[in-house]
Amino acid sequence: xTVKVPKANTSIxxxxxxxxxxxxxITVDGKAVAYRSSNKIAVKDGQVITVKVVAPDxxxxxxxxxxxxxx
Length: 71
Known about the structure:
The chain has a 5-stranded mixed beta sheet with strand order 1-7-6-3-4, with no helix packed on it. It has a two-stranded antiparallel ribbon with strand order 2-5. The two termini are 15 Å apart. By secondary structure, the protein is mostly beta strands. The chain has strands spanning 2-5, 11-14, 25-28, 31-33, 39-42, 48-54, 61-70. The mean pLDDT is 94.
């Protein structure tokens, strides 16, 4: 995915949400975060942000990659 961010902005807020509230863990760029927590991230053009969700079985994972495009 590509996230278009105005050039004047220096950060965005990421609020990770999964299909289930029972996810074993959620990370944003490798940092453990809570379900639906507000996470401010400094951004620059071309930066990649990764959100990883681990299912309740602690085996199944889903990763989402977002590339920042300053516009």
